[in-house]
Specification:
alpha/beta, binds 5'-O-(acetylsulfamoyl)adenosine, seven-stranded mixed sheet, 20 helices, 30 strands, eight-stranded mixed sheet
């Protein structure tokens, strides 16, 4: 699909200036202050980032080299420095903040636990010693498959402490997905739990882990199991050990392992346009720096803030704004285990009230879902401590933005709409709340030191306002991904090839308006955002085709009021198409099958059976046509190249 030069349709006129009261105590207080930073970065991009790295990171050995572009687009930042990320998140806070609360944890059942920096430091050291005792060394991969509890953060920080590379797999992914990721990463250890709770249901983590390990995962030597749900689960002798047992008689001191700036901190698997998820590899120093500067610039973090990012740690948002960013700046954060609707749709606002949240960061899908439940629900809660709101994951529609602004922010809180990706490590385009006026639906302006632009098919900057094109980043930045684990070629092909290795290609289409504000229009590739979760259409198609009765499948996104996009699948069966295109038992089976192969988030909402898929004469599936049909739109595409026009009726569910 060529998105370039699409006339954009959205024309949002409303402009919200930063409130003077907010700006007065903000870290960046005005457009003038922001422009000064932008200018520094424009004058000397490398020096700008080197200055930030020197001022924000506690180095064991300072770096002397800033950026090595000799193997571009493999960039190296702060190459000869030595540091430890866990030291930067914990030890350096012990002097002034040992007794400050680092984590306020709330379980879905209402259990609350507070962990201070001193306690967190001890727990991380203990667990790091346990990892070492179980044979984990610098560079080993450790897969973490856990519920949203403080131990998830402890496990990640402990890996960072000894230079082990963690790879968190979202607890909602299936045994099959877990197995694929463990095998791709070549992980030596798995850390999991008996079970988690979400939406009142137990998530069978250990059961899924056992299934994954029974089928493959030959590199796994040991499994550490946290007790959380308390249910009885089988433990395999010689392989499985309880968390409580491994931390029992170990020291609560653990010298950090000093690693090079470029040492991989973690892998995080994310969906792309091919069937197989890719292991996005992040660095230690550059990534850490990204989480710190964005906590300061975008979240305007102050010492007395109570910060809550609702994302699961299984996604990048949870990595950067639960596990690393808030701790690296010594903040107090809330971590909530469960669903937003337990016991009712007021849970988020209840948490904001009880824990006196000042900065609240969530996804448009959650806002839309809670908005649907009515204005009277948030009205019951005291939200007066809130001072800043954020969103992430997909474009926020102006209606949801206005509801958030009115009913949650009480027209007092700025909203920061943060555009970024698993690959970018931290926010790249977002309003700095004390300086930048916002427009509902726009992520506004790139952060200082981020050379974002919109370009046409030839890579030329699009200067005319409101003309769509490819979103690119024209200069390397410290918190960019380093490669795709084990697949250099895919790194080059996915992010760099399109414009001859010159620009990072985000895979999104966007346009800039008259004021230079960025508006994200959607993906240029076959990636869906279902409730803010990133899924590849090919990934779901491969899962469907793996079913013995399925010959061919095409998956597209269907616009959904709450989820943003819903999964819509077109299926060609081996053998005859069901009469009238209806076979409820099979549909149920295929939905369960996809759940088993990938996870419940990938389960198709709709499945339609056809004798054939619409293809051009050159054999390409006409995805745009399928998207129009899924959306229930009139077909405007040229269908004259279709091999068999009659199947259009089947695809539309009319035959
Ligand atoms: C953080 C995250 C990345 C994709 C990205 C976009 C979409 C994310 C916004 C957004 C419009 C936003 N990582 N996206 N944030 N679109 N406005 N503020 O979501 O790797 O899972 O997804 O998400 O399409 O490319 S991700």
């Amino acid at each position: 699909m060529a998105p370039a030069n699409i006339e954009s349709i959205l024309h949002e006129q409303r402009l919200f200036q930063p409130a003077p009261a907010f700006a007065a105590r903000a870290r960046i207080k005005s457009m003038r202050e922001l422009q000064a930073l932008q200018q520094q970065a424009a004058q000397d991009h490398e020096k700008f980032w080197a200055d930030r790295a020197r001022e924000q990171i506690s180095w064991h050995k300072p770096f002397t080299k800033i950026l090595d572009s000799s193997k571009a687009p493999h960039y190296r930042w702060f190459d000869d420095g030595l540091l430890n990320v866990s030291y930067n998140c914990l030890d350096r806070n012990l002097k002034d903040k040992a007794h400050k609360t680092a984590i306020i944890f709330e379980g879905e059942q209402g259990d609350v636990r507070r962990v201070t920096y001193a306690e967190l430091h001890r727990e991380v050291c203990r667990f790091a010693n346990a990892l070492k005792a179980n044979g984990i060394k610098k560079g080993d991969r450790v897969v973490i498959y856990m519920p949203m509890v403080p131990e998830m953060v402890i496990a990640m920080q402990a890996c960072a402490r000894i230079g082990a590379i963690h790879s968190v797999v979202f607890g909602g992914f299936s045994a099959q997905s877990l197995q694929d990721r463990i095998e791709d990463a070549g992980a030596k250890m798995l850390i999991t739990a008996d079970g988690g709770t979400r939406g009142g249901k137990i998530i069978e983590l250990k059961l899924a882990a056992d299934q994954a390990l029974a089928k493959g995962c030959s590199t796994i030597e040991s499994v550490i199991v946290l007790k959380r749900s308390g249910q009885t689960i089988p433990m395999q002798n010689g392989r499985d050990v309880w968390w409580d047992d491994v931390v029992k008689n170990v020291s609560d001191q653990c010298e950090p392992v000093w690693v090079e700036s470029e040492h991989p901190l973690f892998l995080l698997y994310t969906s792309g346009s091919t069937g197989k998820p890719k292991g996005v590899q992040h660095s230690s120093a550059g990534y850490l720096l990204g989480t710190i500067v964005t906590m300061q610039w975008v979240f305007d973090i102050h010492d007395d803030d109570i910060f809550w990012c609702t994302a699961d740690v299984g996604w990048v948002t949870g990595h950067s704004y639960v596990t690393y960013g808030p701790l690296a700046v010594g903040a107090t954060m809330v971590m909530y285990e469960g669903a937003p609707t337990i016991p009712d749709g007021g849970r988020f606002w209840d948490i904001c009230q009880r824990h006196k949240i000042t900065i609240f960061y969530t996804a448009p899908t959650a806002i839309r879902g809670l908005m649907k439940l009515g204005d009277d629900i948030p009205a019951k809660y005291d939200l007066s401590k809130l001072r800043l709101l954020g969103t992430v994951g997909e474009p926020i529609n102006p209606e949801a933005w206005m509801w958030y602004h009115t009913h949650i922010g009480h027209e007092r809180c700025p909203i920061t709409d943060t555009w970024w990706q698993t690959e970018t490590g931290a926010h790249l385009i977002a309003p700095i709340p004390g300086a930048v006026a916002t427009k509902p639906g726009s992520c506004t302006l790139p952060l200082p030191g981020i050379a974002a632009d919109v370009v046409d098919e030839e890579g030329n900057s699009i200067t005319a306002p409101n003309q769509g094109g490819y979103l690119v980043i024209k200069k390397p930045w410290p918190f960019m991904l380093r490669t795709i684990w084990g697949d250099e070629q895919r790194y080059l092909d996915t992010y760099w090839k399109k414009f001859n290795n010159k620009y990072y290609v985000a895979g999104d289409t966007a346009h800039k308006d008259e004021d230079g504000y960025f508006w994200i229009m959607g993906r240029a590739d076959d990636v869906l955002k279902v409730s803010g979760h990133r899924l590849g259409t090919m990934e779901i198609e491969s899962a469907l085709v793996a079913h013995p009765r399925v010959a061919e499948a095409a998956v597209v996104g269907k616009p959904d009021e709450v989820k943003g996009e819903a999964v819509f699948a077109y299926v060609v069966l081996r053998g005859a198409r069901p009469a009238g295109g209806v076979d409820e038992a099979l549909t149920k089976e295929l939905r369960a099958w996809v759940t088993e192969q990938i996870g419940p988030i990938a389960r198709p909402d709709d499945i339609r059976y056809a004798d054939n898929l619409p293809k051009t004469r050159s054999g390409k599936i006409m995805r745009r046509l399928l998207r129009s049909i899924a959306a229930g739109e009139a077909i405007t595409q040229d269908t004259s190249t279709l091999e068999n026009e009659a199947i259009l009726l089947q695809l539309r569910g009319k035959a």
